[in-house]
Amino acid sequence: MKVLDTIKTTTEELGPPEPEYLFRAHKYAGVASPTFTPDLDVPFDLGFKRIVSFDEFIVDLANHLSKTQKEEGGERIETYFVSMSPILEWTIHTAGKKERNTTQDEVVGLAVFDVKKLRQNSSTTIFRVSHVLEFLISQGRSFLIPAEVQKWARNCDEYVSVGKIPDDGLVRWVRWAELYSQSVTILPECFSRAYTLAIYRNWIENQCVELGVEDVCNRIVKFGKVLAGPQGDLLFPLIKLVLKPGIQFWGLRTATGEDEIESRIHVIINDDTPLDQFSTLRL
Questions:
Q1: How high is the pLDDT of residue 46?
Q2: Cα–Cα distance between 141 and 136 in angstroms, integer?
Q3: Quick one: pLDDT at residue 75?
Q4: pLDDT digits (tens, 9 = 90+) for 188-206
Q5: CB under 8 Å to 131, separation ≥6 — which residues?
Q6: Last residue of a domain, one of 175, 192, 227
Q7: Residues 245, 248, 253, 257: what is their CA dihedral angle, to the nearest 10 degrees?
Q8: Are 110 and 35 in contact (CB under 8 A)?
Q9: 69-101, pLDDT tens digit by residue?
Q10: Do 76 and 192 reside in the same domain of the chain?
């Protein structure tokens, strides 16, 4: 399937630069730590490409993208893809939805993957779905993926990995209970209850809490530290992604501008950071 290799090699020419990190809302049971293996652990190698045609691959991708909807209808769909997204708020919200439907022995959390480490692994192949869609449009074959599924994939900027994600690609795993801890969270109570982020935005629009800039910044820093955990080099990048949709998205409001908030957060973190860690931090 040479066309798939074409999609991979042209990614830098399409759209914004590749993200540093990808996120996954993940639910698992029965093991000490999560692994990220698809239902069908199929290597994306020459043997695969000889057996599976391009159209078959795209139909399989379409089935994967609509998997949640199909499973809710009672049909179990097994695929060889693992889903990820660079949109932090989208993935945290998805984790909250998964948490509402867990059994006693299941754990839900947020996985953070380093894109460079994933790309460096010869057995891992990652596709940005929007690139695949653009290629299909250029070939007049976008009908292979339903329009509503295409829209969903673009909204969350879906990425998929074919086959198992390598263990060294995972740089942080944080459980939902930690994300929603009342002592550190900035997630409003209605955040995980909303079925979509659009519904959540409507709910939160008139519910923002007016706070002083120090209070806002300290709350965001605390939440960033939960996200990053012991991985100090993740702290600044993750906080920037928390700030990306704006503080009002999280139900916070202050008279200070967004740029000043980011600068103040930078100062707070630097004041708390041991000198020997400065070389690993970036903003």
A1: 78
A2: 5
A3: 56
A4: 989 988 989 999 999 998 8
A5: 7, 10, 11, 14, 15
A6: 175
A7: 30
A8: no
A9: 444 444 567 888 999 999 999 999 999 999 988
A10: no
Cα angle 223, 238, 82 (rounded to 5 degrees) comes to 110
Sign of CA dihedral 11, 14, 20, 23: negative
Residues 6 or more apart from 41 whose CB is under 8 A from it? 80, 163, 164
Residues 6+ apart with CB under 8 A from 207: 188, 190, 251
pLDDT at position 76 is: 63
Does residue 158 sit in the same domain as residue 267?
A: no
Q: Of 148, 175, 202, which residue sits at a domain end?
A: 175
Q: Are 46 and 130 part of one and the same domain? A: yes
Q: pLDDT under 50 in the chain at which residues?
A: 9-12, 69-74, 274-283
Radius of gyration, CA atoms only, the chain: 20
Does 114 share its domain with 217?
no
Distance between the two ends of the chain, CA-based, in angstroms?
40
* Residue 87 DSSP SS3: coil
Domain, as residue range, for 20: 2-175
How far is Cα 180 from Cα 186, in angstroms, rounded to an integer?
Answer: 8
The number of distinct structural domains making up the chain is 2
Which pTM was predicted?
A: 0.88
**Burial group, residue 13, by CB count within 10 angstroms (0-12, 13-18, 19+):** exposed
